[in-house]
Amino acid sequence: MQNDDNFTPTSTPLGALVGQDAQCLYVPEYQRGYTWGGDHIDRFFEDLFTGINQAVTGDGPTTFLGSCIFFKDVGAVYPKHANALPTQVLHVVDGQQRLTTWLFLCGQLAKRLRSVLHQIEQTTVTGEAASAQQWLLEILNGFYARLLASLHYDNHATTDTYQYKPRMIRQSDDVWGNNSKDAKYNSPIAWYLHAAALELHGEEIAPVVPGRLGRLSDAIAVIDENLDRIEAGQIVDCPPLEDLDFVDSDEACGRLLNRIERCPNPPASLTELQQKGIRLAVMACFTLERVRVISVIAPNENYAFALFEPLNTTGQPLTPLETLKPLVVNSEGSQKYRGSPSAKSLDAVDRFLHEDLKAEDRQRRIDALITSFALVEKGERRGRSMTDQRSFLRQPYVGTKTIEEQRAFVAGLAGTATFLNDVWYDDDPPGALVGTPATRLSLEVLSSTQHTICLPLLVRYYDRATAEGAQKSDIAEFQEVLRSVTAFWTLWRTAKPTTAGIDNVHRRLLRSGDPESNLSGLARSFTDLANLPKPKELKAVLASTLQSKLKIGSEMDWVNTVASLPLYRTAKKLTRYLLILAHHDAVADTPGHCKTGVRDSSETRNIEIWNAHFTIEHIAPQSRAANDTTYESLIYDDGLVDRLGNLLLLPEGINQAIGNRQWPDKRTIYSVLAETDPTKRTDGLANKGITGIAQRTITTIELGAHMPFCKFVGENSAPTFDAEYLRDRSRRLAGLAWNHLWADLK
After folding, report:
1. What are 293-333's pLDDT values in tens digits?
2. Residue 517: CB partners within 8 Å, gap ≥ 6?
3. Using CA atoms, how far apart are residues 540 and 556, in angstroms rounded to an integer?
4. If residue 296 lies in a helix (H) or strand (E), which one and from where to where?
């Protein structure tokens, strides 16, 4: 890249860049916190060791850490005290992780050099050893001073401990100051640098509060582990640090110690302390002189971000959300941003994307947030590429005309993030919002089947239910929409072998609504919260869609379709939901079947039942024994084994215990599991002539909880489990489930 009037890319040693007199680094508020773990830091040291190996032979005396992008602006520091500011401030757009790690290394190296210097100065040597001692002291003192300068600068505005100002601070968390009233070093990096400077200057420092440094403590621990190995000469893949033979060469000393004069003594005659000092000196020299970055200093923040993507080749790139933040800060004004409505919105986004997440989990959440928000905002489908996501967030924000519109855009993003965090990803969402057990179960069904296309629609009604001044009716309507969306998804998906088509239904609703019923697009750009349609209107559109897209307009249409499909293979999780619905408030009908009873006859439609009965049992085994005639052959010949009528729900342990037993044994076990009287439960297996059951299995069955899904099947007294019963049961169960689902769409 060629130089021009806008920026100057330069290959710069970090010691020269960071240690430049009266120049400091400033991390904007939108930058993520420190995230490097042990693997990152170990790789960093491996790069250093490789560089040292190459330097001793002259093959490649530099370790490049990629590009670091900055822009200069002292005026943009806020809050600030003019008399405490450095002359030049570089705002860090890219490179924070590498720069922070490098500063930690400098700090820990400086502490060790100071200790070695003190020990050497306290050691009396004579003769040739004295020459080596003097040679080493001069080297160590020089590097120690430079390491110290990398940690802090002094503008000579005060003479107390606040004269040592950290070389790097974070916006809002930290303030450069000349006294205890003005100075604030609360971020982990600023606190570390200030505390290290005080310690190295012999000043008293406050004890470290547990957790004060957060992840930085782990990083420092890994750095210290590597420095321990270096001091002991235990870097087997870096001979210069292990055997120190290079000290016999003027040229090698020039490359590794920046001193073109060999050690007066041969390596074998050096004391253990001197060897430790030389190894630390090599690390200090290489860290300050040979670790380089491509330093790109842009004239302003916008230009810096324009350079960021093509030049960012190392580390973890800023996410689209993190590149939106500087635009928001700029719109609100850096001095007014903290405490602004936009800041509160982005705090909600940060809560959803908290730093404790693993990188892959964080990226999944970012994808879910942006793809959902694009539909919430404009009814637009967005891909998962960072470029596409970044474009979606930045262009609409920049294109808005007023700060109020920009705030509304960011508030919409925050609303989506809050719903995902508090409702979708939370194992225990707020009861006031999800309401009844049936509504809570609806949410679980959507989540477990990963039906994420419904999220934008739910977010819109959730935003209204949680808006300032929301009424109880708004919360009730959110719950009603949640149940209706679940019912629509269940009716659609169980009647089709694939999910094809349903995504387009939701996108059309958000983008263009339903022209036939005069329903406007439900995305925020087309309909505000106050004018969202009533749930009854939305449900009418969903019901009409079932008729127009799937030709399902009546119970008979759906029941016949569902009863003919191998639901265990085409929609396993939703089949669990159908079985739960079918048995809710069910009572006995003709033997082996059930019908709807009075309300509260039998409650199965709740999250506890869903969590407890999480495996599907095939009554007629998927693979029956060759000599087993208790299951009619027609079941297998006609491919009925995965139909709804051949399935029931059991906990995994019970399911495994029953196995592939013959029908009479299974029927008996089902009837025992359906017993609520403990005496009858215990006597059941013993008195019904079932043989070949291990005692462990008997105990499992006798101690099992009440199994409502076994009750009616266990009342089928036919000696053979036949195809006619299975088909009839499929239709009946589907009909019972339909009653509950259709009630949520009426």
Report:
1. 989 898 887 777 667 655 554 445 567 887 788 788 878 88
2. 537, 540, 541, 544
3. 19
4. strand 291-298
Q: What is the pTM of this model?
A: 0.70
Count of Cβ atoms closer than 10 Å to residue 119 Cβ: 12
Range 399-425 burial, b when 16+ CB lie within 10 A, else e:
eeeeeeebbbbbbbbbbbbbbbbbbbe
Query: Which residues does 619 contact at the CB level (< 8 Å), separation at least 6?
Result: 646, 647, 648, 663, 666, 713, 721, 726
- Beta strand 615-618 pairing with 168-170: unpaired
Q: Which residue has the higher pLDDT, 334 or 550?
A: 550
When pLDDT is averaged across residues 737-746 and rounded to a whole number, the result is 96
Which neighbouring-strand residues pair with 102?
Answer: none
In the listed set 500, 522, 557, which residue is the last one of a domain according to the structure?
Answer: 557
Q: What is the pLDDT of residue 2?
A: 42
Within-domain flag for 740: no
Residue among 243, 163, 247 nearest 201 (CA): 163
CB 135 within 8 A of CB 261: yes
Tens-place pLDDT, residues 3-43: 445 666 888 999 999 998 889 999 987 787 888 888 889 88
390-405: pLDDT as tens digits: 888 888 888 877 999 9
β partners of residue 67: 294
**Looking only at Cα atoms, what is the longest distance across the chain?**
109
Note whether residue 566 is domain-resident.
no
CB under 8 Å to 538, separation ≥6 — which residues?
481, 484, 519
Q: How far apart are CA 649 and CA 455, in angstroms?
A: 28
C-beta of residue 592 within 8 angstroms of C-beta of residue 725: yes
**Integer Cα distance of 618 and 672 in angstroms:** 17
Lowest mean pLDDT among 57-71, 189-203, 213-227, 575-589: 57-71
In whole angstroms, give the CA distance from residue 340 to residue 404: 12
CA distance 645 to 123: 89
Question: What distance in Å separates the CA atoms of residue 422 and residue 221, rounded to the nearest whole number?
Answer: 35
User: What average pLDDT is seen over the chain?
Assistant: 89
β pairing state of 23-27 and 8-13: unpaired
Q: Are residues 540 and 587 in the same domain?
A: no
In the predicted structure, residue 658 carries a pLDDT above the cut 90: no
What residues does 68 pair with on adjacent strands?
295
pLDDT, one tens digit per residue, over 74-133 is 988 888 898 999 999 999 988 999 999 999 999 999 999 999 999 998 887 777 678 888
Say how many domains are in the chain.
3
The DSSP code sequence of 340-385 is: SHHHHHHHHHHHHT-TTS-HHHHHHHHHHHHHHHHHHHHS----S-
Q: Are strands 594-596 and 184-185 parallel, antiparallel or unpaired?
A: unpaired
**Domain extent at residue 656:** 583-730
Phi and psi of 370, rounded to 5°?
A: -70, -40
Distance of CA 220 to the CA centre of its chain: 24
Range in 138-147, 228-237, 654-663 the model is least confident about: 654-663
Lookup: tokens for 38? 């042990």
Residues 287 and 321 occupy one common structural domain: no
Does 574 reside within a domain?
no
